């Protein structure tokens, strides 16, 4: 048996896995045991690698995943960068709050980014989400303003970007590191083809440490499809409710209309943002009737 080492799968392509190890980037095949078990290897997996002569290797085991996203497949994310724009298109706070809930459910820290601040004021949105307990960046991809804060937040973490079409994810990733060279709206119009179609997700190493998925391809729909939330879990996906949920008069309080609800009292005092609670109520009404067995 050869020497073994350990590293991060940063790229998967045509049956090869590229594992960033202390020895360098090692091209690997997966041991047959993965195929037999029907177990996929994901970019983001922490892999044990058996080195072979010639500087290549075999992935022989992967650590248990802390979390994963399905489309594109990506494991062990520290951070999900939820990008919205202040205008063209205007943010839909319900969509943002649903994406935040998915991230919370998976134990991935959300970072809220509002782009196009050169076109419209981002501060009303930023205020809401800072008050709710999130890190927020206000940026302009046109001027570069605010990009340093995003770059700093990416340092030392494994992150992926998500947000609807046209909000400026590709533009922002290119601002963060020009070597990413992602095609933005203008360029793909010129080339006359769609973006993100045949791309493989790859973790791109940032110069100061940390990795970012080199695809802006997680739509809010993709996210929600991979993580339906049960009603008993929903309040736990709104972090600013945590201080209050144990203070409600009734156990099993839905925090939507009950008397003696500590969440509603906090809302009335202004300690919880109205739009966040509105999103909670509309999500509650949607998930209300789902039972665990219906999600299988
Ligand atoms: N003025 C201004 N324009 C921006 C900003 N960010 C992006 N844009 C423009 O908005 C359009 C969409 O930007 P992209 O970076 O392609 O958006 P995307 O989120 O990657 O879009 P998809 O690839 O479709 O998901 C482009 O025309 C950008 O030039 C910004 O901060 N300010
Ligand atoms: Zn309550």
TrEMBL record:
It holds the Pfam family RsgA_N. It is found in: Cytoplasm. SUPFAM superfamilies: Nucleic acid-binding proteins, P-loop containing nucleoside triphosphate hydrolases. One of its GO terms (cellular component) is cytoplasm. Residues 66-221 form the CP-type G domain. Gene3D superfamilies: Nucleic acid-binding proteins (2.40.50.140), P-loop containing nucleotide triphosphate hydrolases (3.40.50.300), Probable gtpase engc, domain 3 (1.10.40.50). CDD domains: S1_YloQ_GTPase, YjeQ_EngC. One of its GO terms (molecular function) is metal ion binding. Residues 75-219 form the EngC GTPase domain. Zn(2+) binds at residues 248, 253, 255, 261. Its main location: cytoplasm. Keywords: Cytoplasm, GTP-binding, Hydrolase, Metal-binding, Nucleotide-binding, Ribosome biogenesis, RNA-binding, rRNA-binding, Zinc. Its EC number is 3.6.1.-. One of several proteins that assist in the late maturation steps of the functional core of the 30S ribosomal subunit. Helps release RbfA from mature subunits. May play a role in the assembly of ribosomal proteins into the subunit. Circularly permuted GTPase that catalyzes slow GTP hydrolysis, GTPase activity is stimulated by the 30S ribosomal subunit. This is Small ribosomal subunit biogenesis GTPase RsgA.
């Amino acid at each position: 048996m050869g020497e073994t080492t350990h590293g991060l799968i940063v790229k998967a392509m045509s049956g090869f896995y590229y594992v960033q190890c202390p020895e360098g980037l090692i091209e690997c095949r997966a041991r047959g045991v993965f195929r037999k078990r029907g177990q996929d290897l994901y970019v983001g997996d922490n892999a044990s690698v058996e080195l072979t002569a010639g500087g290549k290797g075999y992935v022989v085991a992967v650590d248990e995943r802390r979390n994963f996203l399905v489309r594109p497949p990506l494991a062990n994310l520290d951070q999900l960068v939820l990008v919205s724009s202040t205008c063209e298109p205007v943010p839909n706070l319900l969509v943002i709050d649903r994406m935040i809930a998915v991230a919370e459910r998976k134990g991935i820290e959300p970072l809220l980014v509002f782009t196009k601040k050169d076109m419209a004021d981002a501060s009303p949105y930023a205020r809401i989400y800072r008050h709710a307990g999130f890190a927020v960046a206000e940026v302009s991809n046109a001027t570069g303003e605010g990009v340093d804060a995003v770059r700093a937040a990416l340092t030392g973490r494994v992150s992926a970007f998500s947000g609807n079409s046209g909000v400026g994810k590709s533009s922002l990733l290119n601002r963060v590191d020009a070597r990413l060279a992602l095609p933005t709206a203008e360029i793909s119009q010129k080339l006359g083809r769609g973006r993100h179609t045949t791309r493989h997700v790859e973790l791109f190493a940032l110069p100061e440490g940390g990795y970012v998925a080199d695809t802006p391809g997680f739509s809010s729909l993709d996210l929600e499809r991979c993580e339906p939330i049960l009603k008993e879990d929903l309040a736990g996906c709104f972090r600013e409710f945590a201080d209050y949920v144990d203070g409600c008069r009734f156990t099993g309080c839905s925090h939507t209309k009950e008397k003696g609800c500590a969440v509603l009292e906090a809302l009335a005092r202004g300690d919880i943002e109205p739009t966040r609670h509105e999103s909670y109520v509309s999500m509650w009404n949607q998930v209300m009737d789902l039972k665990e067995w219906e999600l299988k």
